[in-house]
Amino acid sequence: MCASVKYNIRGPALIPRMKTKHRIYYITLFSIVLLGLIATGMFQFWPHSIESSNDWNVEKRSVRDVPVVRLPADSPIPERGDLSCRMHTCFDVYRCGFNPKNKIKVYIYALKKYVDDFGVSVSNTISREYNELLMAISDSDYYTDDINRACLFVPSIDVLNQNTLRIKETAQALAQLSRWDRGSNHLLFNMLPGGPPDYNTALDVPRDRALLAGGGFSTWTYRQGYDVSIPVYSPLSAEVDLPEKGPGPRQYFLLSSQVGLHPEYREDLEALQVKHGESVLVLDKCTNLSEGVLSVRKRCHKHQVFDYPQVLQEATFCVVLRGARLGQAVLSDVLQAGCVPVVIADSYILPFSEVLDWKRASVVVPEEKMSDVYSILQSIPQRQIEEMQRQLFMEPARRENWSAANHQMNSLIWPREQRDSQIINDRIYPYAAISYEEWNDPPVVKWGSVSNPLFLPLIPPQSQGFTAIVLTYDRVESLFRVITEVSKVPSLSKLLVVWNNQNKNPPEDSLWPKIRVPLKVVRTAENKLSNRFFPYDEIETEAVLAIDDDIIMLTSDELQFGYEVWREFPDRLVGYPGRLHLWDHEMNKWKYESEWTNEVSMVLTGAAFYHKYFNYLYTYKMPGDIKNWVDAHMNCEDIAMNFLVANVTGKAVIKVTPRKKFKCPECTAIDGLSLDQTHMVERSECINKFASVFGTMPLKVVEHRADPVLYKDDFPEKLKSFPNIGSL
Amino acid sequence: MQSWRRRKSLWLALSASWLLLVLLGGFSLLRLALPPRPQPGASQGWPRWLDAELLQSFSQPRELPEDTASPPQAPHGGSCNWEACFDTSKCRGDGLKVFVYPAVGPISETHRRILASIEGSRFHTFSPAGACLLLLLSLDAQTGECSSMPLQWNRGRNHLVLRLYPAACPRTFQLGQAMVAEASPTVDSFRPGFDVALPFLPEAHPLRGGAPGQLRQHSPQPGVALLALEEERGGWRTADTGSSACPWDGRCEQDPGPGQTQHQETLPNATFCLISGHRPEAASRFLQALQAGCIPVLLSPRWELPFSEVIDWTKAAIVADERLPLQVLAALQEMSPARVLALRQQTQFLWDAYFSSVEKVIHTTLEVIQDRIFGTSAHPSLLWNSPPGALLALSTFSTSPQDFPFYHLQQGSRPEGRFSALIWVAPPGQPPLKLIQAVAGSQHCAQILVLWSNERPLPSRWPETAVPLTVIDGHRKVSDRFYPYSTIRTDAILSLDARSSLSTSEVDFAFLVWQSFPERMVGFLTLSHFWDEAHGGWGYTAERTNEFSMVLTTAAFYHRYYHTLFTHSLPKALRTLADEAPTCVDVLMNFIVAAVTKLPPIKVPYGKQRQEAAPLAPGGPGPRSKPQAPAPDCINQLAAAFGHMPLLSSCLRLDPVLFKDPVSVQRKKYRSLEKP
C-alpha cells in the first residue's frame, strides 16, 4: 500500500517540470508527508498484524471475568510430591526437543477460576505477585504460546501462599490441566509453604512430579538438583527505594529487625544487646504509634522509633532468624539494604544456593550458637566484611542488567522467574550452562582480572618439538636459507611455509632444500599479514615458531634455547629482540620505542615462540577491527599479537638472549633514517589504536630477559649447553 | 498563471496525500493517544489485566507478624543434617582435631599406612576427648578388618565413617548420627552437606604422592579422537563420531565403520570420555578419565560426584542427559576450543590436587569437614577450584585470595612492592653489618628482621638503618628460619644467612623479578638434583651445571605464605629432619615450593667473584674447594615422604635486559651487577 502511494506522489510527470528552487521545497515537503505515511502505515501494519481483534478484547478483560471451572468432588488428586525425583527420572526431556539456542520454552496455562461442587472458590484467583511473575515469564525469551513446543509448563493456579488455598481442591485443579501427566515438566511457585501447627517446609499440595520453586525449603524437603529454592518476596522492598550504600563500617554492628520472634530467641538477642551495648540493636514492633502511620514501616527499640527498612542500612550485619517458616521475607529487605545477612535457620536451603555462593555474601550461624553470634561475627576480618558488602552490591547490579531486558522486572526484587528458568535450563543443557564466575563475580573483579586460558602449570615434554611457520612472499633464496638454518635446530618437528603470493607459484618440489623434518607449503587465498597467525591444521605441536623469511642471523643454539624457554613459559610469547611502549607526556599518548633500553614489554614476531592456541585467538577472537586494520595497513601484526597474549594471560613477554635487532650485519642500510621515522610513527599509531580497542593497556613491562644459566659465566665454553647464543 | 496552475495541482496532490495519511494513520494515531498499552508480544502471552492494580498481594503485610515461631524443630526421624547431628562446640581452637580409632587385631599394610598418614597429619590428636571428629576406618571386608561398635560411639555423634573402598564392611551397627564418607554414593541415599562423597579408588591406588596426571599438553593433540567409550573388562576404545549417529548405543554398532579403531587402553586417549552406566563402574571410569586429562561426559549420573560440596564440577566435567544422545554429541563437536582447553586443564588440576593418592583423598575429606566448621573462615570457592587447590592453600593463613601468591591474576591484584629481609645469624654469630647496610639500601626494603640463633648474647648495638630493624631471639633450630613470624608484614621475604653477601642492586633486581613470579622462589645460588644410577637414588650437587632445580634459601626471595606452609602443613617428621640435618632445609623448602607450584625456581645473576669465595654453599663456612657432600639421604627421605620427586629443572637465568651487552655502561640500570 505504501509503495503505491509513493509512486503516485513522486510521479515522474510532475517533478521534472518544476523550477529547482521550488523543487527542493516540495521534495522536502513530500518527503515529510511520505515519512508520515510510512510511519502511520507502519503502525497500521505493526500492531494490527500482531494483535488480532480478539486480543483487543483480551486486553480489556478483568480478572473477574475469567472462565469458571467446576471441580467435581471426586476428580483425581495427584500423588504427594515424590522425594526421589531427579531431572533424569521425573523430567521428560523429550518435550524439550533440541533447541539450537539451548533455551527451554515455557508455556503458561490460561487463567481460570476454580470452584467446587457448591460453587465456592478454591483459592484467590491470582495474587498481584503471581500475576507479575507470569507477566515477566511471558515477556522473556523463554516464553512460548505454543503448548506443543513447550518443555516447561507453568500453571496459572496461584500457590504462592499455602494459607490462602484449599489443599485438596487445588491439587484437583492441577491434576486436570491439559498436559499435567503426573506433573512432569510442571513448575509451581510457592513462597509461604506449610501451615499451623507444624509448618511443613515445602508446599503441602500434592503435586506428584512437578518441580517446585519454593521459599523456605529445608534439607529434608529439598530435592537437590530438582527443586529450586527461591527467596520469599517482601512487598516492602518493592515499595521502598533504598539508596546504594558502599562498603565500610556502619553505625550498628548487628541489628535484628524481625518482629514475630520466638521469645527464646528474643531473649538471646536482648542478652547480646545488654552485653555489647550500642553496637547491637534489637528492634521490635511499635506499640504506641499514632494513627495513620503504617506499622510495617516502623520498628521500635524502647521508645525510639526507626524507619523500616531504612534502618537496615545502618548496620553491618542483620539477623535473619527462622520463624515458624524457614524462609523469611526479611532476607529480601536485608539484601536490598546492603546489610550482610546473618542467617540463623538450621537446615534452611538458601535461595538459589545451587548457583549462588552464599558464603561470599552472608554468614550462616547454627541456632545453638546463637549466643555466640557476636563473637563469631567479630572474628571476621574487616576486609572480608567489605568483600561481602561488595558482593551484596552486585545483586542490585545484576538486577538492573536483567531488568534492562525486561521492564516488568523493576517491580520485583529478584528476577526470580528468570533465574529459575536459567537454573532449570542449565540442568537440561548443562554444556551451555553459566559458570560459577558469571553467577557470582562482581563486575569489579571481572574488570581487573584475567583468566589465563593456559592456567595449568605444566612443562610440555621436550620431545614434542615445535613447528616453524615461515611467512613468505617471493624471496625464495632467502627463504631457502632460513629453511636450511632452522632445520638445524634439534627440536624442530615440522616446517610450514605460508606462501602468501597468489600471482606466483611456489618453486617446484625438487628445488626445495632437503631437510630432516616434514616440510609443508600452504598457499593462501589473499596476501594478508594475518595469514601468519592462522591456526593451520598442519600445526601438530603446541609450540609454534613464527619466523620471517629473512631471519637468517639466529643461531641454532639461540633457537633451541628459545624453545627450551618457551617450555618453561608455555603461556607467554618468547621472542628475541624486545620492544617497549612508553607514555608520551607531551603528546598524551602511547609511543613505540625500539631504543635499547632496560625494559621490555613486547617481542618481535619476526622470530618468536608461542602456544598455537594464540593463533586461534588471533584469528577468531581478536577484539574489534584490529585484525582487518592490520591487514589493511600491512603492519603491526606483531604488536597485535603482543596485545592479545598479554591481555588474555595478564603476563609479560619473555625476551631471550642479548639479540636486539634482526638486521643482518652484511645487509646494507637501504632503509634510511626517514623510513625509520615513519615506521616509528606508524608503530606508535598501532599501539594507540590497539589500546583504545582493548579499552586498556594490557602490555606488561619487565626488566629481565632469559639467558642460559651459565651465560657469560667463567666456565669452559664446551661444557655449556648453548655456547653459541648469538650476538646483538 | 501556469505556475499557479502547477502549484494548484501540487496542492491538490498534497492535500490528497494528507487525506490518505489521515485515513490510513488516523486510527493508529488515535490509538497512540490512548493510555499506554502493552507492547508487542503480549498478544498471545499473559494478559494485562485491567484490574491488575486491584489484585491483592499473596501475603498481606499484617499477616507476616502472625507468622510467629514455634520452638525449634527436632530433627526429622533418623535423618540427619549438619546442624542437627554435628556438635561444633567441641571444635573450638585451631580447627579440626581428629581422633582415629585404632585397629583391632591384625591389620593389612594399607590400613597401617593410612593410619600412619592420618597420624602424621596436622589434624590428628591422640585423645578422643579432645577430638572434634572421631574417625572410624571401615576398609576392607575381605581381610576382616571390620570394626565393631567403638567405645566413644555416642550414637554416632561427631563420627565419620570412612569407607574408602567399595568392598566395605557390612553395617554391623546402626550408623545413627554418624556422617558417612563413601565412594560415589547414590543421590538418593546421599545427604548433602552432611555426608561426603568420595571418589571410587582402585585397590592399587598409591598411598601418597600419587599417580601423576597423564596430561602432557594443554590443548588436545590434533587428530586425537573426540570421544572415548568404555569397554567391558575395564578398557577404553575411541569412537568414530563422524559417521555413527549414536556411537554409544549398542544398536548402532552392528556395522563398525572403517574409522572405528578397536584397541584396548587402560587410560583413554581422547578429548572426551563418555561415562554412562551405574556405579561403581562409572565412578571408577570417571577417575581414570580425570587422570588421563580426558573430559568426562557423564550421562545422567545417579551417583554423587566426589567432593561435590566444594568442587565445581561444571568446570571439569559435562553432565548430560542420556536421553538426548544426539544433542550431546552435537554439543561436544561444537564446543569451543576455549572451553575444551579450560575443561581439560581443570580435570588434570583436580586429579593432582585431590584424587591422585589415598592420602589426598583423606585430607580432602577432612578439609571439607573443617570448612563446614569454619563457616565464614572456610576456603572460598576460588581456592578449591583453581591451582594449587585447597589442600595447599591453607584457609588458616587467610581467606582473601589476594593474600596468597597464586591468585593475583584472577583477582586483578598484584603483590606488594616491598619486602622484609630475614637474616639468620647462626654460630659463630657475628652481626652481619655489611649485609644489613646492603639490604637496607634497597628502595623496596620495608623492614629487617634478625633471627638471632646462637649461644652468644645479643649485641646491644645495631647499625643505624633507614628501615626498622627487629631482632628475634630464636630457638637455635634451623626450622625457626621458616616460622611465620607475625612481625613479617610484607608478602615478600628475602631470606638471608648472616654470611651471605649481596649488593644492593642484586637485591633490587631480584626483587623486581620476584614481583613477576610471586609464587616461585627467586634465588642467587643453585643446586641441582639428579638420579644417581649407581646408588639407585636421588642425589644433588652444588656444582655449576647447565640446569638447576633448587635455589639456596640463604639468599632467596619468596612469598611469606611458604613459611605458613612449612610450619603448619608439613608433617612434624620432616621438620625434625631439617633440624637434625641443617643442610637439608634448603632441599625441603624447594620441595615444598615445587610441590605447590609444579614449576622450577628462578635464578638471577650473582656477582662472580664473590661466588668463588661465597660461603653460601650449603653447610656453611666450609671453603668452596671442598664442597660439603650434602647428606644424600636427605633428598631421598624427602622424596619418600612426598611420595614423588616434585623438583623440576630449569635451564635459564633471568638477567637484566642489557646484561653484559657490549653497549654503553651509561645505558645500563644494573651495571654494578656486571662488575668483576
Automatic annotation (TrEMBL), chain A:
It comes from Pongo abelii. Belongs to the glycosyltransferase 47 family. InterPro entries: Exostosin, Exostosin_GT47, GT64_dom, Nucleotide-diphossugar_trans. It catalyses: 3-O-{[(1->4)-beta-D-GlcA-(1->4)-alpha-D-GlcNAc](n)-(1->4)-beta-D-GlcA-(1->3)-beta-D-Gal-(1->3)-beta-D-Gal-(1->4)-beta-D-Xyl}-L-seryl-[protein] + UDP-N-acetyl-alpha-D-glucosamine = 3-O-{alpha-D-GlcNAc-[(1->4)-beta-D-GlcA-(1->4)-alpha-D-GlcNAc](n)-(1->4)-beta-D-GlcA-(1->3)-beta-D-Gal-(1->3)-beta-D-Gal-(1->4)-beta-D-Xyl}-L-seryl-[protein] + UDP + H(+). The lineage of its organism: Eukaryota, Metazoa, Chordata, Craniata, Vertebrata. It is found in: Endoplasmic reticulum membrane; Golgi apparatus, cis-Golgi network membrane. Its EC number is 2.4.1.224. One of its GO terms (cellular component) is endoplasmic reticulum membrane. Pathway: Protein modification; protein glycosylation. Its cofactor is Mn(2+). Part of the heparan sulfate polymerase, a dimeric complex composed of EXT1 and EXT2. Could also form homooligomeric complexes. Interacts with NDST1. Interacts with GALNT5. GO terms for molecular function: glucuronosyl-N-acetylglucosaminyl-proteoglycan 4-alpha-N-acetylglucosaminyltransferase activity; glucuronosyltransferase activity; metal ion binding. One of its GO terms (biological process) is heparan sulfate proteoglycan biosynthetic process. This is Exostosin-2. Glycosyltransferase forming with EXT1 the heterodimeric heparan sulfate polymerase which catalyzes the elongation of the heparan sulfate glycan backbone. Glycan backbone extension consists in the alternating transfer of (1->4)-beta-D-GlcA and (1->4)-alpha-D-GlcNAc residues from their respective UDP-sugar donors. Keywords: Disulfide bond, Endoplasmic reticulum, Glycoprotein, Glycosyltransferase, Golgi apparatus, Manganese, Membrane, Metal-binding, Signal-anchor, Transferase, Transmembrane, Transmembrane helix. Its main location: endoplasmic reticulum. The keyword NAD does not apply. The keyword Glycoprotein applies. It is a single-pass type II membrane protein. Pfam families: Exostosin_GT47, Glyco_transf_64.
UniProtKB/TrEMBL annotation, chain B:
It is a single-pass type II membrane protein. This is Exostosin-like 1. The lineage of its organism: Eukaryota, Metazoa, Chordata, Craniata, Vertebrata. Its EC number is 2.4.1.224. One of its GO terms (cellular component) is endoplasmic reticulum membrane. GO terms for biological process: heparan sulfate proteoglycan biosynthetic process. Transmembrane segments: none annotated. The keyword Glycosyltransferase applies. It is found in: Endoplasmic reticulum membrane. Residues 419-659 form the Glycosyl transferase domain. Its main location: endoplasmic reticulum.
